[in-house]
Amino acid sequence: KKKEVEPLSQTALREFQEETGLQNSHLGYKIGVIRDRVRGRKITFYWAHRNTQEHSILHDEAIIWVELSEAVRKMKHNSEKKFLKKYITN
User: Fold this and answer.
1) Which of 14, 27, 60, 73 is most buried as measured by Cβ atoms within 10 A of its Cβ?
2) Is 46 exposed, middle or buried (0-12, 13-18, 19+ CB in 10 A)?
3) SS3 letters for 37-71?
4) What is the CA radius of gyration of the chain?
């Protein structure tokens, strides 16, 4: 029996909601993709989203909300920094 595959957009929304605890968010457009060959065959898809809840309800203290310009400085991996500079801050 063939296993059903979840659409990428549905996966993105589910993961966002699971990681942030924000359930009233709506997926926007796909922003871009990072293919990171240094850390294996990892492919990361980035999506815009719209949220209708206050950020204060976050359940994970490791999550913080910052301006995009500050996000570039806080990213750990060069591929992520490059992505933000290319797709978001222009």
Assistant:
1) 27
2) middle
3) CCCCCEEEEEEEEEECCCHHHCCCCCCCCCCHHHH
4) 15
